[in-house]
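Here comes a specimen:
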Amino acid sequence: MQIQPRQQLLDAWRATARLSYPDNAWRFGGREGANSISDAEQLLCLMAPATEVPIFRLDKPDAAASDVIAALGVLGDDIQVPQRLIEALTGYLVRYTAPDGTPIFSGDTYFQPDAEGDEIKTEQRGLDVVDSFSISVTLMLAIVGFTKVFRTVVTRPGLLADVDRLEQMANTRLTAAMVGLLRSFAVNVFSADEDLGRELIRTVNQERRPTRQVVEELREALREINARLRDDVTIGSGAAESSELDIPNRLFECGWSWGLVKEAPLIETTVDVGVQRDGVAENAPYLYFTTVALDAIQTLFAERTRLLGLLDEAQSKLAQALQLRWELARSYWATIATFGSGRWPLEDLPWRTTDGIEFDYLSLLVSGMVVQNMVAMRASNAELTRVAAVLDELANRSRITRRSSEREPALDVHHPGLHFPLVGSEELGGPRLAWTVADISPLLLKRTLNLASLLSEGTSRSRLLDLSDELWGHLQQRVIRQGPARGLWDQPAGAFPQLRVEFTEVSWYYTKRVVDCLVTAARVIQEPPLRSGLLAQIAADLLNEADHLYDRELLNGSTDSGEQLRVELDRIGVELRRARAVRGERPGVAVAVTEEVLRKLDRLSAARRASSGTS
């Protein structure tokens, strides 16, 4: 892997700190303006590595690496850096808390009118959006984990009070974000004879079989998910539709809508999370928001969350309800994407939604849910390799690893991005809003690295790592080279000059996703190397021969052998024990060590024979 996450994360930290702390005070805002999502993305450019990559930890200043602290030098020394972060994080929480104490999860400047030229109303900019709920879960868990550890080294009462205040505010926002996700879950039930049903059947019916047969088989494949939706989803949105799932010829889809679902019931909780606003979003899942919700919810039951005990009792109950929805949505889309015995629907690019929209980007979103499900189901290398082929093809089709022509529609996914409407947003009286996504390149790299870490077959893994190097080379071309935002992202014309656009301001939306890729790369590198069964067997055979020859030298050696020979034999014994110790996890190392031992033993044997006069 050519990605060097340590150096590249340090460079990203240096640029982020320089841009965010220009006048001894934290400054929010980027290319898209300040909002609850962009500002969280800005903070996560620092907090994600600091909480997910051990060498970048800042919660124990005395143990922080010198180059890590130096990268944040604009914030101060090793004592001041955590304090400046606490000030910035507290500022974010204050900024996005209403006067009555209700956390704010609006899309604000990320919202765009669906029809160009329409003017968005102020009330619409204040609409809650799933992207804000999701990123708040990620950021708040990072904050709570940071404060729990940092508190153990704090001695000043004033600083300890600041830490306690930050943790309390973060916990409130975390709980509110979890409530928001529960009220944004959507179950869309429809007949197989409706337009939605026909589109779903078209997607899964790769073998062009009779519709009635496909409907019956699909309902059977979704039977367990159907039952759990009816019986287990009892709070939040999605529960009211369960009664329709038993009707024959009914199909469904589940996931997260773009915001609070219309008429979503209130969530009872022992924690005061402020006003639970009325929802306006349509009761139908959006693949983009489903994906970001699943990624955020996964952190709620991650190992770090459990080990540090980041969730209180009320949050744990909400997390259990979200985990249920995480499992159902993941399983649903994985079932749809891999339905049938021939070509998977996922392999039929591009993915087409039930409302008739089709993009390669949607195939990438679905592939992520398929991989998540394969991890849970412990899928075979053969199945993982099929997904790898999809990622490789997506890189080609999006012109990341294949040359692009002067101007072609495939480039639109990079700039200006994919634009999709948010149905229901017009209910407040203004125009229908829309959401734009343009993160196919970093998302593809992240999915590629994740999939490579799961493969245990060397050739397929190597092919994916080669693809990840190509994707990283593409992202490096898109770094902003001049101005205050130099060293950060995104400059799409760097990779596609024909776009003829030039940006001078940072996109925290894009930069945060590149940082996520580097964090993922660091995690992949930290994992044990791929264990080769062939190398393990070779190492075992070599060790058997080396052990035998070593024992022979000990047996045949003279009791009055010189000190140098005895030292050499002792050294060989240590190396043999080392080779045996690492053979299970690093058979390649065992082979290399044992081969060196065999060479030494051969020299000793030759020397002994020469001294005795034998050939």
